[in-house]
Amino acid sequence: MLQALRGVAEQHQLPLDLRDDTHFFSTVREFAAHSKGRKQLRLEYWYRELRQKHDILMDGKQPVGGQWNFDADNRESFGKAGPQNVPPPSRFAPDAITQEVIAEVQTRFAKHPGRLQRFGWPVTRVQALEALNAFIEQRLPLFGQYEDAMWAGEAWLYHSHLSSALNLKLLNPREVVAAAEAAFQNGHAPLAAVEGFIRQILGWREYVRGIYWTQMPGYLDLNALDAQAELPAWYWTGNTDMACLKDAITQTLDLGYAHHIQRLMVTGGWNCPTPWA
Ligand SMILES: Cc1cc2nc3c(=O)[nH]c(=O)nc-3n(C[C@H](O)[C@H](O)[C@H](O)COP(=O)(O)OP(=O)(O)OC[C@H]3O[C@@H](n4cnc5c(N)ncnc54)[C@H](O)[C@@H]3O)c2cc1C
Q1: Alpha-carbon distance 47 to 203, whole Å?
Q2: Residue 58's beta-bridge partner residues?
C-alpha cells in the first residue's frame, strides 16, 4: 500500500505526508529505536517496555502480581471429555452491503481458496463493540487457561476472534486492552487470562508490525528452517489424512479463521524437508 501511494504521489508530483498510524500503541520509529544495537530481538523486552510506557497492568514500576508473564498457569488441556459449554461466538448475518461485496468477491476471485457462505464477521462499529463486549463477558475469564489448547471441530474456543475488527480499524487496540484490564480490576477475570490476552495485543501485534516495517523485505528470504518443498496441493483443500491439518485448513476455508495455536503449530508449522509419500 505504501509503495502504491508513493508511486501515485510521484507520478502526479503530489506531496506525500506520512502520519503515524494511531491504530497501534507504538510507532515504527519507537520499534527501530528499541531494536538498535540489540544482538537479538525478543518480544518479552519490547512488551515490558510498552507495559511501562503505557502504564498497563502496572503497580508503580513493578508488574501487577509481581510477574510479567503467567503462562505457567495458561497451559491447560480440555481433558478427555473435551470443551464444555463453550459460549457461542458473536456472528453477524451479512447486511445488504456485505452481501454485495460477497457477490463481487465470488465473481472476481472465483478461483481463490475459501468459501463465502458462512461469513459472519463484524463489519460495523456497533457489531465490533458487541463482539468485544461478548468476549470480555463470556470468554476472557477462560482465555488464558485454554489459550494453547485445540479440539477437533471446535474452531472458536475461548479466543477473542477480534483480529479482523482490529485490523479493519473497527476497534482500537487501546479500548480492547482497557476493557480487558478493567475486567481484571473489577474481579471478573483472573490476572493470568488478562495478562495473556493483553500480551497478544500490546505485545505480539505491535512486535510483528515493528519487525515487518524494520526488517522487510529482507526477512522474507531468511528461511532459517531451510524449508524448500512446495506446499502440497491439499494445503489449499484440507484433503489430507492428517487430522490437525485437515481440521485447521477446512475451518480456515469455511470461516476465514484459525486460532493462534492452529496457525502457529499446525498450518504455520508445516515444513516438508523431504516430500512425503
Ligand atoms: C503463522 C501465523 C500467521 C498469522 N497470520 C495472521 C494474519 O494474517 N492476520 C492477523 O491478524 N493475525 C495473524 N496471526 C496472528 C494471530 O494468530 C491471529 O491474529 C489470531 O489467530 C486471531 O484470532 P483472535 O482474534 O481470536 O486472537 P486472540 O487469540 O484472541 O488474540 C487477541 C488479539 O491479539 C492479536 N494477536 C494475537 N496473536 C498475535 C500474533 N502472533 N501476531 C500479531 N497479533 C496477534 C490479534 O489482534 C488478536 O485479535 C498469525 C499468527 C501466526 C502464528
Answers
A1: 5
A2: 63
Strand, coil or helix: 42: coil
Amino acid at 202: L
> Which tens digits make up the pLDDT trace of 83-112?
999 999 999 999 999 999 999 999 999 999
Task: Answer whether residue 276 shows pLDDT above 50.
Answer: no
Measured by CA distance, the residue closest to atom 36 of ligand 1 is 200
Pocket test for ligand 1, best of 161, 260, 271 (most atoms within 8 A of CB): 260
- Mean pLDDT over 209-219 rounds to 94
Q: How far is the CA of 147 from the centre of ligand 1 (A)?
A: 12
State the chain's mean pLDDT as an integer: 94
Nearest by Cα to 158 from 97, 230, 84, 226: 84
Q: How far is the CA of 163 from the centre of ligand 1 (A)?
A: 6
CATH of domain 10-230: 1.25.40.80
Which sequence spans correspond to the domains of the chain? 10-230
Rg (the chain; Cα; Å): 21
The answer to whether 159 and 86 have CB atoms below 8 angstroms apart is: no
Q: How far is the CA of 6 from the centre of ligand 1 (A)?
A: 28
C-alpha 11 to ligand 1 mean position (Å): 36
